[in-house]
Amino acid sequence: MTGACFDMPQLSVLIVGCGNIAGAFDLGRPASELPYTHAGAFKRDGRFSLDACVEPDEKRRLAFMDAWGISTGFSSIDDVADAGYHFDIISICSPTPCHAHDLETALSLKPKLIFCEKPVTTSVLETERLVEKCRKSNILLTVNYSRRFDPYIVKLKADIEAGRWGQLRSVVGIYNKGILNNGSHMLDLLHLLVGQIKIVKVGQPIQDFFPDDPTVPVWLETSQGIPVHIVSGHAGDFAIFELQLVFSLGVLTMEDGGMFWRERRTINSTTFKGYRMLDEGIRRAGEYPAAMSKAVDNIYRSITQGATLASTGESSLAAQKLCEQVKEFSITL
Ligand SMILES: NC(=O)c1ccc[n+]([C@@H]2O[C@H](COP(=O)([O-])OP(=O)(O)OC[C@H]3O[C@@H](n4cnc5c(N)ncnc54)[C@H](O)[C@@H]3O)[C@@H](O)[C@H]2O)c1
Question: Which helix (H) or strand (E) covers residue 49, if one does?
Answer without folding.
Answer: strand 48-54
